[in-house]
Each structure stands twice: as structure tokens, then as C-alpha cells.
Specification:
7% strand, globular, 19 helices, five-stranded parallel beta sheet, alpha/beta
């Protein structure tokens, strides 16, 4: 140990004074010491951690952004496929390197635009999709070999994935080389956003159908992006965000293995979507500790042989839960810090929330500002110059170690509840997260949790006018008319044949992916396909707690 690492009398006087220092607790419940030294890393794996080498604490690639910057993939989708296509092309022309597709609520919940239950919701928030025709319009003029596409869809994911594969085939792409991602994480929907359709067991079965199919037929495509993001936005703390996501990923993995698919045939294509808001160092450490833990889970628990199977590939950008309607320009600064956190955490893809997302769908100007924020980070800030620049920091490494331990302990808590599938089906996880969300909001309102512009540094001024994304009634009516026209013009006998085959396959409990692909090629609609599945599987009824 060098003289610099030894404690001096000055150190002792520092130690004596820290008792008077204010106690700092992170949102995860971890206490932060006033000072970290080498002694805090005595049992750490930090000194042996090399980027690109197991367990990948410092990043999954040896050169990380020095070789290639993170993919920029902004979330976009508006009203009609025609409008969405325009926004896609705007983003690509301005330097975006991937697409992240937002679907409207009817599409996410498996309803067609002409269903009476969708009145007022068609294309309101996200793109409306009824048939393959809508995908053909939305991706017109976009090279799927050059732009990877992420589909943010869950309950109806098997249908939208089938449309994407059918579109690629129709346009002459080799689907074995097709890259992209589907969110397709239904368990987090039960915990967070709520766009579930079928009971839990049947929902998991459909996810595994897509994983198995992609392993055999679309091997470069990522069929599931396990989404801790929405769990965090729903009230989970950073430790729970990672722990619940890992438990969910393990559940999908276990069910896929039961079908005889080898771990190394699909694990490398699982990915994660994580949230960023709150304490800068807490966020960075949760990703570094989580990446190390996930690598160990896949290698040690599942005996994966391929290092790529152990990669925690992730998309991580700003969290909407950190943005505020009050003083919305502050969100520009918040988002810049979120982007910095994401890059310092070693993300593969970044999707940065726009400053106006606290109250509306992002305007074109707001989306451009987020895009420029990420581009400035890449080209001006030196963030790509070296790998894991915070590696070796006493504080960061100690916090990384602590997060690995805390995530493991939270996963054991879930197992004690019967595993994540049982805990979700019973509503226990939802209940816990909801209570935490209530407590957090109460803390912000009372000022216990500081929020600049909300409960501190407020200004007495008239609210500034904000630009809202208008509901396009004409676009909604056009979408309905287009769907009715397609239903009249398509081959009715072929449609009925596809639906009968789908019903039979549901009853036989076989993989539905091939049948759904054939159905969408015949322009069978999202609602028609989902209704057949509902007839066989039933629908989920959310448990109510008092």
C-alpha cells in the first residue's frame, strides 16, 4: 500500500467530523458515505474488470464507443402511418440511426380502428395499425438493412412482429439477416403500463412463441426487450427496476428452454430497456452492477458457453418520470444529464425523452433538440474517447458492488413470492410498486423529495403557452375508411381459412408465429387475429386490492 493510501492524522480528524455530516440515502435505500477510499474496494472485482471481457462490468465491447457510438433511436409514431412515415424520414434526415415505433392505444390493446370501443383513441397517441398495408405505408422509402427498427408493442406483439417480418419478405429482404427489436415484454405490462390482453400464462406463452421462432428463423432479430423502464416509471426504485427485469428475463428464458431451444441460440438476442432519472451515480452504478450480475446469471445459472449470451444489451435514455410540466425548459437540462448518465453507463442504444413529454407528444422541434443533445454528446464532449471513464472511481466501484448485491437480494424476495409470474398474476408486485409510487408523489408534493421548479426555486409567473399535439379527427376517419376498404377488397375465403387455422393452433397449443405471419400476409387485421386468441385464451382480469 502506498503512502497515499494510508490514513494520516488528517484522515482521523476527518473521520471524527463525519458524524456531524448530514446523512444521505439514495432512493434505493443505500447510504452514501462522505468519502470513499481504496479500503471500500478491498473485496471488489473492479481491478480485474476489463471492457469486453466477462463479467462485462465496464462494457460488453472492448472499445465501446471508440469503435462505434451508441445507436440513437428516438420514440416516434403519430396518428396515421402516413404522418408517421414523414416523422421517420425527418428523424433519419437529421442523423437518427434507428427507429423506435410508437403505436396508438387501440393497436396496443388489439383493437381495430373501426371497433366502437376505440372511439376517440385512434391515432391519438402513437401510430394506428390495422393491417399489413399500414406497415407498408409507414416504412415506405426506409431501408430496413440500414435502419434498425424497434417496435414498442407488447400485448399484440406477435401480430406486429409478424407484420414486420412479412413486410421484410415482401420487399425482398433476407429475414435471416434482419435486425431489430420488439419490446414484447408482457409481464412488465401487468406491473406497469397495463396494455395486457390475455391471462398471464397465455401471455407468457405468446412471448416464448416469438423467442422460439426468431431463434430458428430470424436469428439476428431481438424478439424481447425486457422493460425495467416502465416498472421504474410505475413506482419501483432503481434496485427493483433491475431485479424485476432480471426475474422477468429469467422467466422467459426458463420457458424457452423447456421447448428444447439451447441457451446460446437465443440469450444473446434478449435485450433490456431501462430508465434514467434521479441521482447520477446511483443510475450509473445500477447499470454497471446489473451488467455484471446478468452475465453471472447467464453463465453460472444457465451454463451458456458463448460470451455474447451473457451480454446485458440495453437501450437507456431519459425517464419521463423525471420530467416536469412546471418550468418545462428545465427538462432540456435534465435530459442532457440523463444522456450523459446513459453514455457513462455503457448503453448500446439511447432514446432520450423530449422536454415537452411531461404534457404532450413531442413536437418536431423538441424531438430535434433531444437528437442534437445526443449528437453533441458524441461529437463534442469526448464521451466516446475512452471506455468506461468512471472505472476505478472508489465511489462508483463501491456503489457498483453494492448494487450487484442489492439486486440479487431483491430477486430472492421475488422468488419467495413464488417467482415473478406468480407474483404478477397475484398482483403482489403491482400492489408494492403502486404504494411506492403514491409515497413518492406525496414526497414531491410535501417537498421531502426535492424537485427544482416544482417544490423549490418556484417562480410566481403566468404559465407559458405550450404547443400540444392535436388530435387529428380526419386522420382517424381516413384510417377507418381505409380499413373498411381493405376488408372489402381482400380475399375473404383466405381470411377465414387463416382465422380457422389460427383457432386450431391456439387449441393445439403450438407455436402461433407461422400462422400469424400467413394471416397478416392475407391482410387479416390486428383485431381479427386478437379476437380469435381471446376466444380461446380468455382475457386477463386485474386483481383488486383494498
Amino acid at each position: 500500500m502506498s503512502s497515499q493510501d494510508k490514513k494520516t492524522d488528517g484522515d482521523k480528524s476527518f473521520d471524527a467530523s463525519v458524524n456531524d455530516v448530514k446523512k444521505v440515502l439514495l432512493e434505493s435505500g443505500i447510504e452514501v458515505k462522505p468519502l470513499y477510499t481504496r479500503e471500500d474496494m478491498q473485496d471488489s472485482e473492479a481491478d480485474q474488470s476489463i471492457p469486453g471481457q466477462y463479467p462485462f462490468t465496464r462494457g460488453i465491447h472492448p472499445e465501446m464507443y471508440r469503435k462505434r457510438p451508441f445507436t440513437i433511436r428516438q420514440y416516434a409514431g403519430f396518428a396515421s402511418p402516413e404522418e408517421t412515415n414523414k416523422r421517420f424520414k425527418f428523424l433519419i434526415e437529421n442523423g437518427q440511426t434507428g427507429l423506435n415505433v410508437a403505436f396508438d392505444l387501440p393497436t396496443q390493446c388489439g383493437f381495430d380502428s373501426d371497433d366502437s370501443r376505440t372511439l376517440g383513441e385512434v391515432g391519438r397517441v402513437g401510430m394506428s395499425v390495422d393491417t399489413l398495408d399500414d406497415f407498408e405505408i409507414a416504412f415506405d422509402g426506409i431501408d430496413l438493412d440500414k435502419i434498425t427498427v424497434s417496435l414498442t408493442i407488447n400485448g399484440a406483439a406477435i401480430v406486429l412482429m409478424a407484420m414486420y417480418f412479412a413486410l421484410a419478405e415482401k420487399r425482398g429482404y433476407d429475414v435471416k439477416m434482419l435486425r431489430g427489436t420488439a419490446q414484447n415484454d408482457i409481464l412488465k405490462e401487468f406491473i406497469g403500463r397495463g396494455t395486457w390482453i390475455f391471462p398471464v400464462d397465455s401471455s407468457v406463452k405468446l412471448v416464448v412463441d416469438t423467442v422460439e421462432y426468431c431463434a430458428n428463423h430470424v436469428p439476428k432479430y431481438s424478439p424481447v426487450s425486457v422493460c425495467g423502464y416502465h416498472i421504474r416509471e410505475s413506482g419501483a426504485n432503481p434496485v427493483q427496476e433491475m431485479a424485476y427485469a432480471f426475474c422477468i428475463a429469467k422467466a422467459y428464458t426458463d420457458e424457452t428452454l423447456k421447448r428444447g431451444v439451447d441457451i446460446d441460440e437465443f440469450a444473446s438476442r434478449l435485450s433490456f430497456n431501462f430508465d434514467i432519472y434521479g441521482n447520477l451515480f446511483e443510475q450509473i452504478a445500477k447499470f454497471r452492477g446489473g451488467r455484471r450480475l446478468w452475465a453471472k446469471i447467464i453463465r453460472e445459472d444457465y451454463n451458456a458457453k458463448n460470451d455474447k449470451s451473457s451480454w446485458m444489451r440495453m437501450i437507456a435514455g431519459g425517464g419521463g418520470g423525471g420530467l416536469t410540466k412546471e418550468q418545462p425548459e428545465n427538462n432540456i437540462i435534465r435530459s442532457a444529464y440523463y444522456a450523459l448518465i446513459s453514455a457513462l453507463s455503457g448503453t448500446q442504444t439511447m432514446a432520450l425523452c423530449s422536454y415537452d413529454e411531461a404534457y404532450t407528444i413531442p413536437t418536431e422541434k423538441a424531438a430535434e433538440l433531444s437528437l442534437r443533445t445526443m449528437q453533441i454528446l458524441i461529437h463534442e464532449m469526448g464521451i466516446c474517447d475512452t471506455v468506461d471513464p468512471l472505472g476505478g472511481s472508489y465511489y462508483v466501484e463501491a456503489l457498483t458492488d453494492r448494487f450487484e448485491t442489492e439486486i440479487q437480494e431483491e430477486m430472492k424476495t421475488v422468488e419467495a413470492l413464488g417467482g415473478i409470474v406468480e407474483a404478477v398474476a397475484s398482483g403482489k408486485i403491482q400492489e408494492k410498486v403502486s404504494h411506492q409510487a403514491y409515497d413518492r408523489e406525496k414526497g414531491i408534493q410535501t417537498g421531502e423529495i426535492p424537485k427544482v421548479g416544482v417544490n423549490m426555486f418556484q417562480k410566481d409567473e403566468d404559465p407559458k403557452p405550450v404547443e400540444f399535439h392535436p388530435y387529428n379527427v380526419d386522420a382517424a376517419n381516413y384510417q377507418i375508411e381505409k380499413l373498411q376498404r381493405i376488408k372489402n377488397d381482400r380475399n375473404g375465403e383466405k381470411v377465414q381459412s387463416c382465422l380457422e387455422k389460427l383457432r386450431e393452433d391456439c387449441l393445439q397449443n403450438v407455436n402461433l408465429m407461422p400462422t400469424v405471419i400467413e394471416a397478416v400476409k392475407a391482410y387479416v387485421s390486428v383485431g381479427e387475429i386478437i379476437q380469435v386468441m381471446k376466444d380461446v385464451y380468455g382475457e386477463y382480469e386485474e386483481p383488486i386490492f383494498f
